[in-house]
């Protein structure tokens, strides 16, 4: 029986193999990574294919689901430039397009790629030193001056500055030609992206195929990031430097990656507004004053880095950054002027430059390039215009004219216009050989199909020299056209597996115990991060208040045994939804069910639960490096609950259940923040935001439902809205009465929902926040919260009326403003001048 079982398994594997390979035909004239010229699977792919064939279709689907859930739960995403819709809860975020088949490269072949990328990184680093230094290559005639000075990425103010064009991270976009040789399609030196996405691709596929990952001896990536981080630390003048990752902001196409890398590497994620130059040094604006920044890993274009000396229109950079670089007080990686060597105009000169600087030929040649700024090369391009790809010689503004074109596919009129532009201003164009890219397998329609691909390989400058990531960022096109220009809009990505003959060493970014000292003090909290944590807490509490209103309203509408005064309570509840912008007016105002539904789902009403969660998610996306995966997953769950995809209007009962489930999800987030977040400044600002918003909402509820003429049902609604029913019933046997209810929700310091309790927590949190001056004087937020605490302790329930409750509400709102003025300062001003710098 065992023999028969193995026979059946063997046949099953053979059948699955045949099904996977059915119809797999490499594209004509293209090298295929998976199938050789004889139609056989290449040897280094066999272990992978064998493992796949051992899985049934159901098992394979389950493995794919694991990878896809990892991508969804961790929020891996990207944006397309200009694709931002304010009505979209994700603000233009798109789910990461993961392909489930990795690119497999054997170790021997990878060593050649790594050697070529290392050589090119060293070459470009030397070239940058010459461009921003002696200019020997231009003097010798090996490099035309116009090919450098004509580039918008050549930054004249950085000439002679230490590290003006230095490289710490280099990336090469590679393609394999029909002959099987790898070619450099483009150099990336400005601010290379993709390292974080490569790491996420690895985590997703390692989760899906852990057994395969181990058995094939796949090289690990952690050592690369370890070396990169060590290289940045070595650039600082201090033993424990403060390293910042400078991001363009949350609407940038790769913001997820930037936040992810900041968390993974332990860097401080900052925007230009978080930084300021004082006395020749760059500092981070924090809640404790100015803190020195030693190293800045930039993810913005160099010319946007300093509006004072570079691009005056930039709102992304730091005024004075160039001067700080010139004085050697901060190191910027990559150097602000490093983007100049990305220009396609330089690619035609690289072979000669390599021979001059290294005495060697390029291990990885770039595609043949003719810069039209030279008469002979321009004539070559014009003569062979129909055979070439024509591309901009330098980086432009990202418009349609920046994309390469195939003149052979243009109309006669369009080709003539292009020819005229090249003749009129040839230095702006290059002609390049049209390279046919290799293909790799993609799982589609139940089988493997060949698709064109490119490979981005990264090299980092470390204290031990250049180190190449043993993997990379592979992009796959959905288009069958294997020419390089067709991949400018690649739509999938996958992991790159470098196989080894020997078991690979386990590497972690965690330092060994003897290399790190113990500390219990939280790191630096930038003012911007504190601001966003504060408002994250407020938005979450605001959405909870709306959900409680909706649940209280619908619960009374569906009650089969209504209490006296019920109709008036329903009007009050519906009126509150309209008053604070959760539900619109108009004809729907007369239908409380429609109002409840709008307050739950409408994105057009700024106070609705869906709108508040949308704002909370957007705020959280700005500080996602400070939130756990579980917290981010809860945002996704809330968004799916409150923004139905089918557009169907739920019934009264369904609307009630949606509100109830959303409240449970918010309670889960509250539990995560209370139990899992370290009690540092970040947690304090999140909690302060929640406490303030809860106190303000409770005051508004009390003014609406606990006036001197309040019915028992209105008081009962107030207890529902403040989640105080159980506490009240345990203390009082009679029904809801005005003074006991007011005391419980306003003044009782033991009720975690009362205003007094919120004020006590605010007092404790604000007392633990840092002060700017050690002069013994109370700062404005502390003074206000102490006044509030005194009022809560001395006021009696008998003296509470609408006016006194309104005073509590106004004091809380004044406290919010005082906190913003003190801690969320982003621009220089009177208080900014008082910020002290701590080295």
Descriptive notes:
This protein has 839 residues and is α+β, with helices and mostly antiparallel strands. Among the domains are: 368-433, Dna Ligase, domain 1 (2-Layer Sandwich), CATH 3.30.1490; 529-677, no CATH class; 678-826, no CATH class. The strands form six sheets. Strands 4, 5, 16, 17, 18, 19 and 20 form a seven-stranded antiparallel beta sheet that branches. A four-stranded parallel beta sheet has the order 7-6-11-12, covered by helices on one side. Strands 8-9-10-22 form a four-stranded mixed beta sheet. The N and C termini lie far apart (76 Å). Residues 1-8 and 826-839 have low confidence and may be disordered.
Give the structure's gist in a few sentences.
The chain is an alpha+beta fold and 839 residues long.
């Amino acid at each position: 029986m065992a023999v028969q079982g193995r026979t059946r398994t063997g046949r099953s594997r053979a059948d699955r193999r045949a099904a996977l390979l059915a119809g797999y035909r490499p594209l004509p004239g293209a090298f295929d990574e998976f199938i050789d010229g004889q139609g056989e699977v290449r040897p280094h792919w066999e272990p992978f294919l064998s493992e796949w064939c051992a899985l049934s279709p159901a098992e394979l689907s389950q493995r794919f689901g694991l990878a896809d859930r990892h991508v969804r739960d961790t929020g891996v995403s990207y944006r397309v430039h200009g694709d931002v819709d304010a009505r979209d809860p994700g603000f233009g975020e798109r789910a990461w397009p993961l392909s489930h088949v990795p690119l497999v490269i054997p170790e021997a072949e990878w060593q050649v790629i790594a050697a070529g990328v290392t050589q090119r990184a060293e070459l470009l680093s030397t070239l940058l030193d010459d461009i921003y230094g002696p200019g020997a290559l231009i003097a010798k005639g090996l490099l035309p001056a116009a090919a450098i000075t004509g580039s918008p990425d050549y930054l004249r103010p950085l000439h002679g500055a230490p590290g003006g064009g230095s490289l710490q991270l280099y990336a090469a976009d590679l393609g394999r030609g029909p002959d099987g040789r790898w070619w450099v399609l483009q150099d990336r030196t400005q601010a290379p992206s993709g390292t974080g996405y490569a790491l996420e691709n690895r985590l997703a596929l390692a989760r899906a195929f852990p057994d395969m990952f181990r058995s094939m001896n796949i090289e690990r990536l952690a050592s690369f990031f370890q070396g990169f981080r060590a290289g940045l630390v070595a650039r600082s003048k201090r033993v424990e430097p403060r390293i910042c990752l400078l991001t363009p902001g949350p609407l940038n196409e790769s913001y997820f990656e930037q936040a992810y890398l900041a968390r993974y590497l332990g860097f401080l994620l900052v925007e230009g507004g978080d930084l300021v130059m004082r006395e020749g040094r760059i500092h981070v604006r924090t809640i404790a004053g100015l803190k020195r920044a030693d190293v800045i890993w930039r993810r913005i274009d160099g010319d946007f880095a300093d509006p004072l000396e570079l691009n005056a229109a930039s709102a992304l950079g730091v005024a004075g950054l160039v001067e700080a670089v010139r004085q050697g007080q901060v190191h910027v990686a990559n150097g602000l002027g490093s983007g100049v060597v990305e220009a396609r105009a330089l690619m035609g000169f690289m072979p000669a430059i390599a021979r001059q600087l290294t005495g060697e030929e390029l291990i990885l040649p770039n595609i043949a390039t003719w810069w039209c700024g030279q008469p002979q090369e321009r004539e070559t391009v014009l003569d062979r215009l129909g055979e070439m790809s024509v591309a901009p010689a330098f980086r432009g503004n990202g418009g349609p004219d920046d994309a390469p074109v195939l003149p052979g596919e243009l109309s006669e009129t369009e080709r003539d216009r292009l020819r005229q532009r090249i003749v009129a201003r040839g230095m702006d164009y290059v002609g390049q050989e049209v390279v046919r890219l290799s293909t790799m397998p993609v799982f589609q329609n139940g089988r493997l199909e060949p698709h064109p691909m490119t490979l981005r390989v990264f090299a980092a400058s470390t204290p031990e020299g250049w180190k190449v990531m043993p993997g990379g960022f592979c992009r796959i096109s959905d288009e069958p056209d294997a020419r390089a220009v067709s991949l400018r809009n690649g739509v999938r990505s996958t992991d790159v597996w470098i196989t080894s003959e020997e078991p690979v060493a386990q590497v972690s970014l965690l330092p060994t115990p003897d290399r790190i000292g113990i500390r219990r003090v939280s790191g630096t909290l930038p003012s911007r991060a504190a601001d966003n944590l504060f408002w994250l807490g407020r938005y979450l509490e605001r959405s909870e208040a709306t959900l409680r209103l909706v649940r209280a309203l619908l619960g009374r509408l569906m009650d089969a045994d209504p209490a006296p005064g019920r109709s008036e309570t329903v009007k009050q509840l519906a009126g509150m939804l309209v008053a604070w912008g959760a539900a619109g007016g108009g004809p729907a105002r007369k239908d409380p069910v429609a109002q409840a539904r709008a307050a739950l789902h409408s994105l057009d009403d700024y106070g609705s639960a869906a709108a508040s969660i949308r704002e909370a998610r957007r705020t959280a996306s700005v500080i996602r490096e400070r939130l756990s995966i579980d917290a981010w997953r809860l945002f996704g769950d809330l968004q799916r609950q409150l923004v139905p995809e089918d557009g169907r209007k739920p019934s009264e009962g369904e609307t009630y259940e949606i509100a109830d489930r959303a409240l449970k999800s918010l309670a889960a987030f509250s539990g995560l923040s209370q139990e899992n977040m370290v009690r540092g400044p970040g947690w304090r600002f999140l909690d302060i935001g929640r406490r303030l918003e809860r106190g303000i909402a409770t005051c508004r509820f009390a003014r609406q439902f606990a006036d001197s003429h309040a019915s028992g049902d209105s008081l009962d609604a107030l207890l529902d809205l403040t989640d105080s029913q159980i506490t009240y019933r345990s203390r009082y046997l009679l029904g809801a009465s005005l003074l006991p209810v007011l005391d419980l929700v306003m003044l009782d310091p033991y009720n975690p929902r009362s205003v007094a309790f919120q004020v006590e927590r605010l007092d404790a949190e604000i007392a633990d926040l840092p002060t700017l001056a050690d002069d013994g004087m109370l700062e404005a937020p502390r003074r206000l919260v102490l006044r509030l605490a005194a009022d809560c302790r001395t006021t009696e329930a008998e003296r509470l009326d609408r006016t006194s409750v309104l005073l509590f509400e106004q004091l809380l709102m004044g406290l919010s403003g005082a906190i913003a003025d003190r801690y969320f300062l982003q621009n220089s001003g009177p208080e900014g001048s008082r910020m002290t710098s701590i080295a």
